[in-house]
Amino acid sequence: MADTDPIAGYIGRFLALHIHKNNLASEVRLVDKVLPQLARLAPEFTEACSPDKFMQADASRERASPSAFSIRPR
Fold it and tell me: How many CB atoms lie within 10 A of CB 16?
């Protein structure tokens, strides 16, 4: 998707909400260039897109991949 395409963020937030509501994963990592606080998320996304699940990075850049997709210590 293009950098200015809002569709990717739209699909991602609803996918995150679906995974969260239905307990489909034990851990979710959300990676985006835009912080959730600045993405104008509706209140129903607050828990599914919480800062503890979020990492700010450009996933289309190779240098972001190691930290974006590594497992965090608990």
Answer: 23
